[in-house]
Specification:
With about 475 residues, this protein is α/β, with parallel strands linked by helices. The chain has helices at about 10-20, 30-35, 60-75, 85-95, 155-165, 185-195, 205-210, 235-250, 255-265, 280, 290-300, 305-315, 335-340, 350-370, 375-390, 390-405, 410-420, 425-430, 440-460, and strands spanning about 40-45, 50-55, 55-60, 75-80, 100-105, 115-125, 125-130, 150, 175, 200, 215, 225-235.
Length: about 475
């Protein structure tokens, strides 16, 4: 398909540059030819900061940024996930993709083969420590003498701690985890829970995790700054210039700042509010101001209306204007694309009746999707998991459960376990998985809390 007329002047200007970089097979070229093809091939990694699927929608800090660049140029983003950093560079040079949208360290050796451009960051390693009432914070590296810091064995964090210990003349107790199933993010979670005292992480990963665990402090830098950047091949300088100029214009605009806030500031997981019961405020037998809508949709769809109320409470604590970091909105926490598929768009998303109707319909669809699960309570658990994390990841976890001889029709201790394991590369890259990396903690807690609240409502309020 040809580009629309608004791109023709740019193409005529840049066409001579394009011909310089065409191969004989006419398959590889610079930005003008990419514009003609309508598609930008994006190489990246499946991580919590770069690219992942959540609620069946592609997300990630680097993904959102490159998507906006594509939108600006009228391009379709084609994401190609590489198995590792080394593979990213090889795939770029083999012309599998056009740009690496991932933070590649800037080194002198790579400058002969790539152009650093686009999103550029200054990274460093930080100490991750808990900051709750009664905790004493380490605010200088010398304060680590006599302390135990836990890191993954052989990691760059391990190497930095060894060097720091040498710089200080010894005294840091370095504890290493040998298990392949422990990631830096797992250690950060353990710090938050008080299971270990300290760990080390890159500052962007640490800041992202602070949005999940608000009791963390990541202020103490323990390494020198390291520049990182997106990269393109040296034979695509027009693409590089276009990425640089786009970021130079956008870096201080609300769009750029909104994406930064989404991933590194906004609270994720569950709302940090006191979860109280409306039945204590509105009178006996009343869960919320919206009970009539829950009852109406429950009757229409054959669902327990108190289950719908439990989902709404978990998503929004019954606040009609609520919007989550992922973009889910309204009482039932609907993604706009999901709501649109159910006929609810625009301001209707914030209307209680429309939002509850769409949310109830979606939950009913998910329960039907798992109709092969014979036990009705298990069907509901799978549907709730998919409501929170997306059908794709739950289907992956069921496939993994079947492959590893667990019961794919039982949530607790079976599929639930593989939802958790999908954070590990050996599982999310398994051939039976189609949706990649997944951070499953929230989904596991979501199912547990909604089921518990549903039981509470059933005990307190008659159907």
């Amino acid at each position: 398909m040809k580009k629309s007329a608004r791109y023709l002047p740019l193409l005529f200007i840049l066409l001579p540059a394009c011909t310089l970089f065409l191969k004989k097979d006419d398959q590889i070229c610079d930005l003008p030819c990419i514009l003609e093809s309508d598609t930008l091939r994006i190489l990246t990694l499946n991580t919590s900061t770069s690219y992942f699927i959540y609620r069946d929608q592609p997300m990630g800090y680097h993904y959102d940024m490159i998507q906006e660049f594509c939108r600006h140029h009228g391009l379709i983003p084609e994401v190609i996930v590489a198995p590792g950093t080394a593979s990213l560079m090889n795939m770029l040079q083999d012309e599998v993709g056009d740009v690496i949208a991932y933070h590649i360290p800037v080194t002198r050796e790579r400058r002969d083969s790539v152009i650093y451009c686009g999103l550029q960051q200054i990274n460093h390693q930080v100490l991750v420590q808990r900051a709750m009432q009664g905790d004493t914070l380490v605010d200088d590296v010398t304060g680590l003498i006599g302390k135990t810091v836990t890191v993954t064995s052989g990691s760059r964090y391990h190497q930095r701690l060894i060097h720091l210990n040498e710089e200080l003349g010894g005294g840091i107790r370095i504890e290493v985890t040998e298990s392949d199933s422990i990631l830096p993010e797992d250690l950060i979670r353990m710090v938050s829970r008080g299971e270990i005292a300290y760990t080390v992480a890159d500052d962007d990963l640490a800041r992202l995790n602070q949005t999940y665990f608000r009791n963390l402090n990541t202020d103490l830098e323990i390494s020198f700054d390291q520049r990182s950047s997106w990269v393109v091949r040296r034979n695509t300088p027009v693409l590089a210039d276009s990425l640089d100029s786009w970021f130079a214009r956008k870096s201080e605009e609300p769009l750029f700042l909104r994406i930064m806030k989404r991933y590194f500031e906004e609270t994720k997981g569950f709302y940090e509010v006191d979860r109280f019961s409306y039945s204590e405020i509105l009178g006996p037998g009343v869960i919320s101001p919206f009970d009539s809508y829950f009852q109406q949709e429950g009757k229409r769809l054959g669902l327990d209306w108190r289950l719908l109320a439990a989902v709404a409470y978990q998503e929004s604590t019954f606040r009609t204007e609520e919007s989550s970091w992922s973009g889910a909105v309204g009482l039932m926490g609907l993604m706009p694309a999901t709501a649109a598929s159910l006929g609810v768009t625009g301001d209707q998303l914030y209307d209680p009746e429309h939002n509850i109707r769409a949310g109830a319909q979606y939950l009913k669809q998910l329960i039907s999707f798992f109709s092969s699960v014979k036990e009705s309570t298990e069907q509901i658990k799978f549907a709730l998991a998919a409501y929170n994390g997306g059908i794709g990841h739950i289907s992956d976890a069921r496939a993994l459960a079947e492959k590893y001889k667990a019961d794919k029709d039982v949530w607790e201790g079976n599929v639930e376990r593989f939802v958790q394991l999908k954070r590990l590369e050996q599982y999310y890259t398994d051939p039976v998985c189609r949706n990649g990396y997944f951070r499953g903690d929230e989904t596991i807690n979501y199912v547990r809390e909604v089921m518990a609240r549903w039981e509470q409502y059933r005990q307190a309020v008659k159907e």
